[in-house]
Amino acid sequence: MSTTSNNPLILVAVLGIFAVVIILVIVFAIKRREEVFEGEVTDKNIQETNRMPMNNMGPMNNGGINIMSGGGIQHDYYIYVKTDVGKSIKYKISSGMYEIIKIGDRVRKPKGTTEVTIVSSNTANTTAPNPAQTENQQIPPTNPNPPSALSQ
User: Fold this and answer.
1) For residue 17, is it within any domain?
2) Which of 17, 58, 92, 105 is most enclosed, with most CB atoms within 10 A?
3) What proportions of the chain, in percent to the nearest 5, are helix, strand and coil?
4) Angle at 98 between CA 95 and CA 100, to 5 degrees
5) Residue 55 has pLDDT above 80, yes or no
6) Nearest alpha carbon to residue 96 among 115, 70, 120
7) pLDDT for res 69
8) Do the domain assignments include residue 135?
9) Neighbours of 93 (CB within 10 A)
10) Which domain does 107 fall in, by range?
11) Do residues 79 and 105 touch, judged by C-beta distance below 8 A?
């Protein structure tokens, strides 16, 4: 067998692996969209992953870190939800939703989407009054002798 006859087999193998990866990505995306839950947020977490470039030792790099390699730290944002049926779920969310959702909030993840929505917020109005506002308030003086009593 010559090496040219092996090339189609290699091509078929590479295409087969690529097809399997694409199918797995599609299956996981569909599964995430089909997931449905509602419950209370019990915890939040940011996971950092160091994404080092795959090839730092290239001939043009002289052994240093390749700036154009896409390396760096990746942040993944998660909430932990105790569902109404008693199941605990770790669910990945966007950084914007991570800032909005608070522990104790009730969230819902409907079918057909990957986003969670806040059903009710646990953030009661616990903000203290601004001292600058309370100091500048003018309290009218109380007059022990009302004008009607003096005119008689």
Assistant:
1) no
2) 105
3) 35, 25, 40
4) 115
5) no
6) 115
7) 55
8) no
9) 20
10) 36-123
11) no
Exposed, middle or buried by CB within 10 Å (0-12, 13-18, 19+), for 41?
buried
pTM for this one?
A: 0.56
Tokens representing residue 61 in the block: 């790099």
Query: How many independent structural domains does the chain possess?
Result: 1
Q: In the predicted model, is pLDDT for residue 82 greater than 90? A: yes
In a domain, 149, yes or no: no
- Is residue 150 situated within a structural domain? no
Could you tell me the CATH number of the domain that includes residue 90?
2.40.50.660
Average pLDDT of the chain? 76
Please indicate whether residue 53 or residue 132 has the higher confidence score (pLDDT): 53
109 or 54: which leads in pLDDT? 109
Q: Which amino acid is at 79?
A: I
